[in-house]
Amino acid sequence: MKKNIIILLIFNLLSVGFGNAYSKDSFKRQMFKNMHIGWDLNKTNDYRWSNFNFGTAYGQRFHLNSKASWQIAADYNWSKYTLYSNAEFNSSNYDKILRTQSLSFPLTAEYRVYRTLFTNIRVYTGPVYELILSSKMDGNYYSGIKNSQLGWTLGSKIRFLGIFNARLAYNYYPTGLFSNGGLNRSAISFSVGF
After folding, report:
1. In terms of C-beta distances under 8 Å and separation of at least 24 residues, what long-range contacts does 141-145 make, across chains too?
2. 51, 100 in Cβ contact below 8 A?
3. Pick the residue with more confidence: 117 or 42?
4. What is the distance between the alpha carbons of residues 23 and 26, in angstroms, rounded to a whole number?
5. Which stretch of 26-30, 108-112, 148-152, 171-175 has the lowest confidence by average pLDDT?
6. Angle of helix 2-18 relative to helix 26-33, nearest 10 degrees?
7. 21 phi/psi in degrees, rounded to 5
8. CATH fold of 35-193
9. CA–CA distance, 25 with 38 (Å, rounded to integer)
10. What does the alpha-carbon distance between residue 126 and residue 17 come to, in Å, rounded to a whole number?
């Protein structure tokens, strides 16, 4: 039930961005122009993590410096963890598959380092709060993970043709995903959007 309410809330936020997206209303424009889909990936000897996400964001410039801005995003995530025992990666021999669905909220400070008429390059960094909504181990409900985590992101964003953007980032979570402290996560993240 909780997951359905959150999905409905995200859908409503996204539909606000579509309705009359090019009006002078800054919130609607921001929600539309910052929609994105992304992919995170990391492989170690202990696990392989892949994550697909979609979301949107809202941000504003800082008044003291027009090159600096902040942005808060809301992303819905589908993660898959392939877990390996004995710290030996093997694509055909694994122990468990953990799947999670979550909401993440990155709050970033950004700085524009380059700008032309059609291109804009920014670097950004900031904390990420993630709320785990559901988790399954080998297809069955699994309660052995933490419900929320705090991480950090560092990356760059390139806007090209004045419309599209691409992001490349590194995400790090200093505490383990499992309740016992295991499975510290980090990943290279790539996303594209408007």
Report:
1. 142/98, 144/178, 144/179, 144/180, 145/98, 145/100, 145/177, 145/178, 145/179
2. no
3. 42
4. 8
5. 26-30
6. 110
7. -65, -25
8. Porin (2.40.160)
9. 26
10. 24
Number of C-beta neighbours around residue 6 at 10 A: 17
Q: What's this model's pTM, rounded to 2 decimal places?
A: 0.79
CB 194 within 8 A of CB 36: yes
Q: How far apart are the first and last CA of the chain?
A: 31
Closest to 153 (Cα-Cα) out of 108, 101, 112: 108
Which residue, chain included where needed, has tokens 């392939």? 82
Which pLDDT band, with edges at 50, 70 and 90, does 33 fall under? confident
Q: Give the CA angle between residues 160, 15, 125 to the nearest 5°.
A: 45
Which residues, in sequence order, are CB contacts of 194 under 8 Å at separation 6+? 32, 33, 34, 35, 36, 163, 164, 165
Residue-wise pLDDT for 45-85, tens only, equals 788 899 999 999 999 989 889 899 999 999 999 999 998 87
- The residues spanned by each domain of the chain are 35-193
